[in-house]
Amino acid sequence: MRECISIHVGQAGVQMGNTCWELYCLEHGIQPDGKMPEVKAIGGHDDSFTTFFSDTGSGKYVPRAIFVDLEPTVIDEVRTGIYRQLFHPEQLISGKEDAANNYARGHYTIGKEIIDSVLDRIRKLADQCTGLQGFLVFHSFGGGTGSGFTSLLMERLSVDFGKKSKLEFAIYPAPQVSTAVVEPYNSILTTHTTLEHSDCAFMVDNEAIYDICRRNLDIERPSYTNLNRLISQIVSSITASLRFDGALNVDLTEFQTNLVPYPRFKVGINYQPPTVVPGGDLAKVQRAVCMLSNTTAIAEAWARLDHKFDLMYAKRAFVHWRHLLEIVEAPAAGLISHEGRGHLASAGKISHDFTVALRTLAPENHKIVAVAARDVKHAEEFAKKHNIRRVYGSYDELAKDPDIDVVYIGTIHPYHLATGKLFMKSKKNVLIEKPLAMNLREVQELISAAQDNSVFLMEAIWTRFFPVTVEVRRLLEQDEVGDVQMVRADLGAPLTHIPRLAERKLGGGALLDLGIYCLQFIFTVFNGERPESIQATGHCIDTGVDGTAVLVLKFSGNRLAICTCSITMMLTCDAVIIGTKGTIKIPDHMWCPTSLEVNGKEMQFPLPEASMPLNFTNSTGLRYEAEEVRQCLLKGLKESPGMPWAHSSLIADVLDEARRQLGVTYDQDNIQ
C-alpha cells in the first residue's frame, strides 16, 4: 500500500483539513467516530482509501494526518467538533502562543519550541506505513505559522524524508482580500525558503474562491467554512486517484511528472461520483471536472506580490516590529528612578521585558516616564504600548533631561561603551546589559568614566539577584555542602540564525552572550577569586565568532570549574556545585533559575506573573536587578556589592583570554 501523510499547518491549514477530512469520510462511508458501517465493510473490496486512513484493527479508521498550530484556538475546534473521535489526540498538536502574523516567530522562535514534537509524531505515522509515498502539506502563505513554521517543517522533512514527495496546497494572499498587512513579507520569505524543499505546489487564490462563492453559489458573505468546503472539493478531486482505483496520478510523484516534464494535455478518469456535504452549498452532481495546469500565468500573481514587498521594504515598513530574521533593533537605553522620577528609553526586546518586569514592583519606587531610540517612530510605538509620557529621538536629548536618575542601556554589545559614557558624562547613573563591554579595556574605560563622574555603574547580569542565587550564596556561607571542589555550568542552544549572536560586527559569539552567564555563576561560587589557569577549546563558525566554547578554570587547591557554551547546539543549561559534603544543582534555566536541588532536596522560587507577554524566559526576574540599583542608590553606593566592578573586570579578562585561545577577535580589540 502506498500511504500519504497529510500535514495541516496554521489556522488556514487546520480549517482546510477539517473540511477535507469531513469530505473524505463521506466519500468512503466512514462515520464521525472513525467506524465504517458493517454492510459497507463486508461488501466493499476497494481498500485504496487506506492510503489516507490507517486501520486500528478494531474496526476504526484514523486519518494519516497531523494538525499543527502555534496557538490552540483553531485546533480546539477540531478537538471539540463533530469529528473529535476521528482523530488520534496525539495528532492534534498546538502551542501556547501564536506567531502573530510573523514569519520569524513561526520559523525561528515559537516554531522551534514544537518542531521536534511534530517531527516525532510524523515519524510515528511514517513507521505505521508499509510504503510511504510522501506528504501533503496544507497551509497559507500569509500567516505567521503557515509561512514560518511550514518552511521550518519542510526543511526538516527534507532531512528526515529526503526521497519522499512533498506536495503543497497553499492559500495565496489575494490583492483585495487580506488578513494582515505583512502578508507580502511572509509570502516572499516562505516561498524563498520552501523552493528547494517542495516538489509541487497547488495554489489557491483567496479572492478567486470568494468570487466563486458570490457569483456561482450566490453566497453574499462567504464564511471560512464556505471557502474551505469549496477548496476541499478541489483537494478531493486531486487526490481521488490516490484514494480510489484510477489510471492516472496513482502516485504522488506522477503529479510532478505530468505537470512539469510532460505538461501536455492529459485526462484521467475516476469512476467515483462526486460527494457533497449534506446541507452544504453545492448540489449533488453525477460528474465533475478538475483541471491542474502548470502555467506561466502565475508570474503575474508573483509580480504583484513582489511589488508590494518592494514598496514596504523600501520604507522598512514593519521591519522593526516584525524582527525579520531577528534584525537587531536600534540601540536604546532605559531609565528607572529610586525617587519615583523614573524614565526609560528603550525599544528593544529585552527593554520590553524590563519594562514589564518593573510593573511587578511598587509603582512609587519604579516608574518609567521616558523612552528614547534612534528611530523616533520606534520610540513612539514603544511609548504608546507601555503608556510612557516622554519620547526622544536621540540619546543626546535624553541625556539632557534633568529628571533622569538611572539609564538602562539595552543595546547590542558594541554600543555599550559609547552609550554608557554619553550618559555618565551627563551625570546619569547607568545599568548596562551584559556584557558590560566588548573587552577588558572597554570595561575599565567605563569604570573610569563612572569614577570620574561620580555616578553609579552596574553590569546587568540579572542572574546575580535572583532568589535562587541569593539562596546559593547563603548555602555556601553556611557550609551546607562543605568545601567546593568543582563547579560546572552549561548553556547552549542553536541560535546561529540570529544575526546579533552570529555576526562578528554585532558582537556575536557564544562566550559574550551565553558563556558570561556560566562564568558569572562560577565567580559567584568562588567569590570573585582569580583562576590560576585558563584553558579554552572549541570551534568557530563561518562568521569568525565562537560557535561552541569549553573553558576549564583551575583555582588554588586543585579546585576546578568547567564552563560550556554554544550557539550551535542544545546543551543541558544547568549548573552544579560539588562540595566535600554534598551538591547544589540548578536543574535547568541556569541563567534565570526558579528551582534548586540541595543534596537531592528540591526548592522552588516562583516569579511574579507578567502583565503582558514576554520575549524571554522568566523575564519578570529582571525586577531583582532593578531593585538592587534602587537600594544601592538609596545607600549612596557607586557600585553594587552583588555585582561589583571587580567581578565585571574579572569576567571580561577571562573572556578575552578564552577568545585569544580560540582565535576570536573583534574590531574593538585592535583599538589601543
UniProtKB/TrEMBL annotation:
Catalytic activity: GTP + H2O = GDP + phosphate + H(+)
Membrane-spanning parts: none
Matches recorded under Pfam families: GFO_IDH_MocA (PF01408), GFO_IDH_MocA_C3 (PF22725), Tubulin (PF00091), Tubulin_C (PF03953)
GO molecular function: GTP binding; hydrolase activity; structural constituent of cytoskeleton
Cofactors: Mg(2+)
UniProt keyword GTP-binding, yes or no: yes
CDD domains named in the record: alpha_tubulin (cd02186)
Main location per the UniProt record: cytoplasm
UniProt KW keywords: Cytoplasm, Cytoskeleton, GTP-binding, Hydrolase, Microtubule, Nucleotide-binding
Gene Ontology process terms (BP): microtubule-based process
Domain Tubulin/FtsZ GTPase: 49-246
Compartment(s) where it occurs, according to its Swiss-Prot or TrEMBL record: Cytoplasm, Cytoskeleton
InterPro entries cross-referenced by the UniProt entry: Alpha_tubulin, Gfo/Idh/MocA-like_OxRdtase_N, GFO_IDH_MocA-like_dom, NAD(P)-bd_dom_sf, Tub_FtsZ_C, Tubulin, Tubulin/FtsZ-like_C, Tubulin/FtsZ_2-layer-sand-dom
Gene Ontology cellular component terms for the protein in this record: microtubule
Taxonomy, superkingdom: Eukaryota
Family from the record: Belongs to the Gfo/Idh/MocA family.
PANTHER family on file: TUBULIN
Protein name: Tubulin/FtsZ GTPase domain-containing protein
